[in-house]
């Protein structure tokens, strides 16, 4: 008889930061005191200057606070060649530099002085940031749903954004997550990469501001040699994986497919005998439609001698896994209002430092939206979609990009949009259950390099799509010539030799040192926070994330929408969403996320002012 599944906590967000002025505590202060009495480990508080109070809600909240800041998660710094785990680790970094963290990883960070509080999260926004602010009150969380329900409990206005609602009628994967910083709730804003919250403390009645660093500046290419930039990125990818693998057996867990992106991660791992011996390799594409993925990965494992699957004893593997008690509820609390595909990791690991490593990030270079401008995308929308819907899409998306310093007609502006929104929100879907996800292909210098206009591209570069090919060539030339899921991806040996000559030959294990590790993975506390579950007043019964429960949730949402002024405009999308859910040939997590859009809208309609 198999062991029973070990259930984890109820669904809810990772963190909530609330900063209240001297006269703005009221109902929130009461909630905090109730939480402190029932779940003291979830609550931490700090008295700031000028009468402000900071409250931090998270798992083991007190361990993440320090005298002038809060930090949850992990970061790594390729320049300093170091990993930082938890508040203890990042404090070691702050003793060496005054700069606030602006690093890859998965974290949220806030720091304060006598006059100012600044809050941000990791470079690529694996850890999301949503903001709601009123005079004397600023609240930040990774969950817009938490902010929505908390505003309701505090008696604050909740206003549906009709333009955002209209934009969701565009049935395209680009609209399967936020199209801009605006959400369905006018009072709740998303902060993409390059943006941070700043609160001026003097006066005690301030609302928070959003400080914006232009995206093109934030990810500017600083190099002068294409070959050196590729080699530096490749060594950093390999060093990152080598460091994680060095944390212990099967701490580096690579998910492989028959494609090129995971092949780069595989090549980087196999570069080091120690890393390849310690890592766990698996192919999770087991659906019949992905049979080719499994075939390719199995052949590679046989040829290159790496083991597929875990080597840990079965009882140890079972003991370390916990399962989400309410997967659909977790999707509501952590995805709705931001990421609409019904896609959710429904399990986590009790063992700290088990890193999920995937090839997400390569589309930052090779393109996800056809290497086009946003103006070109909008023109296509206008040709195929209702004019009002197209106008809403343009308003929401272009406004967000232009705020970030990217004009809608700029070269590759649609790919800048991908960086700011889909890459962040889709790439961070592991966060509701774990902070231990790493995307080594996301390389800051390569982002800026890939966005150069052709006339500015350095010698040796053959366009943005060549970047991933060249990473694979220098990390694993022998893997570049092996079969892929699509024969067109396989590089001829003579082509590999040609590129190696341009790029200075292959990278070796001697080029890739493991980084130092500051702090301990056990200092990273992740997973849903029980206090926030209580604050959000979840009203739905526990449900699996399957067709039956998703259809029931969509039907409930449809009843709410059909009683609203949006009934007519949303009728076709509701019908299409239900058709997709009932069709077994369509994956439940299909990219357009039509059912999730409707469920999200209904959540707002229920409580809107």
Write a compact overview of the structure shown.
This protein has 609 residues and is an alpha+beta fold. Helix content is 40%, strand content 15%.
Please characterize this protein's 3D structure.
There is one protein chain. The chain is an alpha+beta fold and 609 residues long. Among the domains are: 15-218, Glutamine Phosphoribosylpyrophosphate, subunit 1, domain 1 (4-Layer Sandwich); 226-365 and 425-504. Helix content is 40%, strand content 15%. The chain is built from 25 helices and 20 strands. The strands form 4 sheets. Strands 4, 5, 6, 7, 8, 12, 13 and 20 form an 8-stranded mixed beta sheet that branches. A 6-stranded antiparallel beta sheet has the order 2-3-1-10-9-11, covered by helices on one side. It has a 4-stranded parallel beta sheet with strand order 15-14-18-19. Strand 4 (65-66) and strand 5 (69-77) form a beta hairpin. Helix 14 (374-384) packs across helix 16 (413-420). The radius of gyration is 24 Å and the shape is globular. The N and C termini lie far apart (53 Å).
Radius of gyration: 24 Å
What is the strand content?
Answer: 5-15%
Task: Enumerate how many helices there are, as a single number.
Answer: 25
Mean pLDDT: 93
Count of distinct strands: 20
**Unreliable stretches, pLDDT < 50, 5 or more residues?**
1-6
InterPro entries: Ntn_hydrolases_N
Organism: Desertihabitans brevis
Protein name: Asparagine synthetase domain-containing protein
